[in-house]
Design brief:
The protein is mostly beta strands and 358 residues long. It is 0% helix and 42% strand.
Length: 358
């Protein structure tokens, strides 16, 4: 290994921390210059002691989740730097033993910092050092020389003491998933029977401490129609609904530890084709001088246009005849009529209805 003496001096260095985002930036805790910082991979060093009060850094740890944040354990407690060691602030609220010789950080859900002390055991902070609480249940030796964290789910913290190694496993906490925004539901193609597509987003928090088996269910009118969809599945197409029937689709997020959250739901229907005529206009026989009334019954019709003549002949549009019922003027001769139905998908022509005079 190359000899890179901090500041060019023969210095005892009990602690080192490397910036996880800028590996050439290194902080060194020393017995002479307190903390030194190098920004060129150790080629040169400069003091980084502002706010430390002359205390030696017994241990240093960089927070991989917050670039530039470093913690120092000293004989006066824990100090935090948010600018890679340029300045330091004491963060000791709740730390009843200030002789800190070991630090470790875990990033299971939110970062938690652990401090090992000489005579006070292990302390934990869940808010970046703003407050500390003891974590010593089962610890038979409270002089802690070293700490390490296994970043598993849940993580395990190891403490090295004169009585050997002790471990602490974070308890699994399970709460209902939160932040599950409402889903959407929409007809894939209003002119073809292609189904309704339901889409949603993941909850902002699954509530399973990272240990659950996460899945989604899709419900139609509160009845599940798809279950156990994987965490990465965020859409589902329902092709089994009855055409033209409104359904309310909701999504349920399951976190695998017995708790679920359900969206409010969204309503959609599957339309398939152009207007479908259910009852054709009927031919009639009348006395001369009487009017005929025709009616067409259809599904999905948005517009109507009546014509004189044979079906398909649009050369004789009847002014004002734009509803499902058409009443003719008084007739003195036989005549034929038909209606063209329309919607966004196209048109459908009725059969020819004939009026025969007696």
């Amino acid at each position: 290994m190359d000899d890179e003496r901090a500041g060019g001096m023969y210095t005892s260095v009990p602690a080192l921390a490397v910036d996880p985002t800028v590996p050439s930036t290194v902080d060194a805790g020393t017995n002479v210059s307190r903390v030194l910082k190098s920004t060129d991979g150790g080629a040169s060093w400069a003091p980084a002691n502002a706010g430390l009060g002359g205390f030696t850094a017994n241990t240093l740890v960089a927070d991989a989740a917050i670039p530039g944040t470093v913690y120092a354990g000293t004989g006066a407690g824990v100090f935090e730097s948010t600018d890679q060691g340029a300045s330091w602030t004491s963060v000791n609220a709740g730390l009843t033993n200030l002789r800190v010789y070991a630090l470790a950080i875990e990033h299971w859900t939110t970062p938690e910092i652990y401090a090992g002390t000489a005579g006070g055991g292990v302390f934990r902070s869940t808010n970046a050092g703003a407050n500390w609480s003891a974590l010593n249940s089962g610890l038979t030796n409270v002089s802690v020389n070293a700490l390490a964290v296994a970043q598993t789910l849940p993580p395990t913290v190891y403490a090295g003491t004169a009585n050997g190694v002790f471990s602490y496993a974070e308890p699994v906490v399970c709460v209902t998933p939160s932040g599950l925004v409402n889903n959407t539901a929409a007809d894939l193609d209003p002119c073809a029977k292609t189904g309704v597509v339901v889409a949603w987003s993941e909850p902002t928090a699954w509530g399973d401490s990272g240990t659950g088996t996460r899945s989604f269910d899709v419900l139609r009118n509160e009845i599940p129609i798809a279950t156990g969809l994987g965490e990465s599945t965020l859409t589902f197409t329902d092709g089994t609904g009855v055409e033209g029937v409104d359904y309310t689709y909701a999504v349920r997020a399951n976190n695998g530890c017995g708790l679920s959250a359900v969206t409010v739901g969204a309503t959609a229907l599957d339309l398939s084709t152009r207007p479908v005529i259910q009852t054709q206009p009927a031919s009639q026989t009348l006395w001369a001088g009487h009017s005929a009334a025709f009616q067409v019954v259809a599904a999905s019709a948005a517009g109507y246009r009546w014509y004189g003549g044979l079906s398909g002949d649009t050369s004789q549009p009847i002014v004002g005849a734009t509803s499902s019922i058409y009443v003719t003027p008084k007739l003195n001769a036989s005549a034929s009529f038909w209606v063209l139905l329309s919607n966004a998908c196209g048109t459908t022509a009725s059969n020819t209805a004939t009026v025969t005079l007696k």
